[in-house]
Amino acid sequence: MTILPSDHDIQTRQTIVRLLSSMASAKEISQYLKRFSQLDAARFAVVKVGGAVLRDDLDALTSSLAFLQDVGLTPIVLHGAGPQLDEELSAAGIGKQTVNGLRVTSPAALAVVRRVFHAQNLRLVEALQRGGARATSIVSGVFEADYLDRDVYGLVGEVRKVDLAPIQASLQAGSIPVIASLGETAGGQILNVNADFAANELVKILQPYKIVFLTGTGGLLDDDGKVIDSINLSTEYQHLMAQPWINGGMRVKIEQVKDLLDKLPPSSSVSITRPAELAKELFTHKGSGTLVRR
Ligand code: X2W
Asked: How far, in Å, CA of 143 to CA of 181, rounded?
C-alpha cells in the first residue's frame, strides 16, 4: 500500500524548498546535491536526533528527513529519548540518578528504557511513513556493548562493536534507517547506551560526509542564549570550557564533539542545528546552527 503524503507534508516541503531558494542560489544547492549524490549511501550523513526533538519538533523533523529522500538522499538517523525516559521513569516511581551525565540504570529502569526506546523509535518511523518517506525501524543488532562500569552505572553500555548489516540493508532499499541507542552484550543482555556516544561510534566507523546533531536548542548557545555560529576547537576549546556560563549539558556536548573530531580526519566538522534548518545546513555555504571544527 502506498501512503500518500498529506497536504500538510507537501506544504511543509514546499516551504523548505522556498526557504532554501531564498537563502542560496540554485547553483549552490545543485553543487551540494551533486556532491552528496556521488557518495556511497552510507557515507552521506549521520543525523543524531535528541529526545527533545522527537517530543517538540516531530513535524519539522519528519518533513526535513522526507525532503532528503525526495531528492534521492538517505540519511542514517540515530535517536535518543532522554526527556521521555525522565518522564516515564518518574511515572513508574523510579528516581533519576546520573553520574557524569549518564543515567544509572537498574533492572527495573531498564525495562522502562527498552519500552520507551521502542515506542519512540516506532513513533518516528510511523511519522516518516505517514509523510510519504520509507523508513526502517532498527532497535537491535547494531551496537554490541560491554558494561561501562556495572558497579557505578548498572545496566549501561559502552559500544564495543558496530554491526552495519541492518543499516546497509535499509540503505540498499532506499529506506531511512532509524536506530535506537540500545546495546547488547555478547551474552545477550540489553544495555542502555547514551545516544550521543552511540552516534559517535557510528560516525567513527562510517566517516560520513556530514555529521549533524539535531537538538532542541538548534546549536550551542552563548551567555545571552544566542546560537554560536562556529567554534574552532584548536583555538577556542580551553577558553570556551573556562567560561562560567557553559552549563553541564553543553560542557558534555563540547567534550564529546572534541573527542569525536580528534578521531576523524582533520577536515571533518560537526553541525549542531534544529530540524527545520537541516536542509539549510546541508545545501548552503552558510549552513545553520553551530559548526564545530577541530
Ligand atoms: C541515555 C539514553 C537516551 C539519550 C538516557 O538514559 O537518558 C544513558 O544516559 P538524548 O535525548 O539523546 O539525550 N542513556 C546511559 O541519550 O537520549
From this structure: 8
Of how many residues is the chain composed? 294
- Summarize pLDDT for 117-170 with one digit per residue, the tens: 999 999 999 999 999 999 999 999 999 999 999 999 999 999 999 999 999 999
Question: What span, in angstroms and rounded, lies between the C-alpha atoms of 130 and 170?
Answer: 18
pTM, two decimals, is 0.93
149: its cell numbers: 562500569
Among 55, 192, 213, 253, which residue has the most ligand 1 atoms within 8 Å of its CB, making it the best to mutate?
Answer: 192
State residue 190 phi and psi, 5-degree precision: -75, 140
Interface ipTM = 0.99
DSSP assignment of 10-47: HHHHHHHHHHHHHHS-HHHHHHHHHHHHTS-GGGSEEE
CA torsion 25-27-33-37 (nearest 10°) is 180
Residue 3 has a CB neighbour count (10 Å cut-off) of 11
Least Cα distance to 233 among 214, 208, 254, 264 occurs for 254
Which residue is closest in CA terms to ligand 1's atom 1?
Answer: 194
Distance 193 CA to ligand 1 centre (A): 7
Rounded to whole angstroms, how far apart are CA atoms 272 and 49?
10
Q: Is the dihedral of CA 268, 259, 255, 142 positive or negative?
A: positive
Q: What is the largest CA-CA distance in the chain?
A: 56
Best mutation site among 58, 84, 85 for ligand 1 pocket (most ligand atoms within 8 Å of CB): 85
The dihedral sign for the CA sequence 124, 145, 141, 113:
negative
Please report which residue ranges of the chain form alpha helices under DSSP H.
7-23, 26-37, 51-56, 58-70, 82-91, 107-130, 150-153, 165-172, 195-206, 233-241, 248-262, 278-283
CB 113 within 8 Å of CB 120: no
